[in-house]
Amino acid sequence: MKIAFIAPDVHYHAGPARVTAALIERFCEDHQVSVFSHTIEGIDLSKIKHYKVPAITRPKFLAYITFLVSSTIILTVLSLLRKRDFDIIHSSGCCCAFSTDVITSHFCEREGLRLEKPNIIEMPHKTVLQKLKALDHRIYRRLAAFVEGLVFGHNSPKARIVVSQSMKREFVCHYGDAAESIIVIPNGVDLKMFNPANRPLYRDRIRQRHGISRSDLVLMFAGGDWERKGVSYTIEALSLLPRPDVKLLIVGSGDEKLYGQLAELKQVRERIIFVPHTSVLWEYYAASDIFVFPTIYEPFGLVIVEAMASALPVITSGVAGAADVIIDGVNGLLLREPSDVNDLAAKIELLLLNAELRKTMGEHAREAVEDLSWDWVAQKTIDVYNRVLSRPNLERPWVSMPGRLQENFQGAGQLRKP
């Protein structure tokens, strides 16, 4: 099969770029894979054909526009010159959705916009730089929501994939019957990389690096977009646990100065270690005892299943897409309201006081995600490709064929409950 992927970035660091990289890595062994991206890292370029897509990287809204326009132009030119011959064109998000057969959306832009309008998710805007970032973000979110509406707001011949059942419900809520045919294929996890066997290898080393003693109990948060993912709630919950032996690792990119000030206000700054984005995240899971992720909105949450694969007990919000694999009280703990810091603190304390519960819950967490491998995700994705290709009347981009998708793809990627 000749497969083309379109994504602004492809790498193994985080987010949609990591999902795309995992699929490319598996598909290039048995298929001809072409990649249209602005950046690409960690992929053996001898196994694929890479098309560099020119794009501005900042501000965010211009990055979106320039990639959307550039990738569309490149694909159009290749088509006109008859130099493009793909069986499937798969876009990561709506970044080039006008020329694709399959689209995987990793974020419901309309839902994000809904939460931001009443400041449920609020960007900091005190300094000039913060105000500019907030403005850029608002323009980007409205632009992305507009493009999303063009793709998901009406019945389409494209196969449209989302990464969780909760995300599909959001699309149905915002777009009605037009979203009913959306396919659910959850993200996967590298079960070898994120593994409880890492604990004896990295636990002491990471703790020594950051001045954490062997007897300390370590909470861990990981990710970017700290406003949306609940770093402030985590810091406030920590302040309700007056135990100097409880430390918090905050791993990822965010406004360290702003949240450092919050930590000082709550008198817990000396118990928090900020760690910039790292390419060895599995080592930090190995060094930790509990994973805390009180996100306000999270379509999936790769870090949740990575922590579970590492056999960490996880406390996260019920709204997170990856909560699909969590049975509350068995393989994790779910928050009804991420902003309820008293509930968060109580759940943390429950695990802090019971080492046996932490151990058994972590073991059950590992068991719950053992079937959620990237190989499984890749096979479900190939199944979608085959169903698209099996429709002789499907109106596919750049091919003059009438007809629309009529069969419901709902069952293509149902996640088995543990």
Notes on the protein architecture:
This protein is α/β, with parallel strands linked by helices and 418 residues long. The chain has 2 domains: 2-188 and 373-413, 3-Layer(aba) Sandwich (Rossmann fold), CATH 3.40.50; 196-369, Rossmann fold. Helices cover 41% and strands 15% of the residues. The chain is built from 14 helices and 15 strands. The strands form 3 sheets. The chain has a 7-stranded parallel β-sheet with strand order 5-3-1-6-7-8-9. It has a 6-stranded parallel β-sheet with strand order 12-11-10-13-14-15, with helices on both faces. Strands 2-4 form a two-stranded parallel sheet. The two termini are 33 Å apart. 46% of the residues are buried. The model is unreliable at 393-418 (pLDDT under 50).
Structure, briefly:
By secondary structure, this protein is of the alpha/beta class. It is 41% helix and 15% strand.
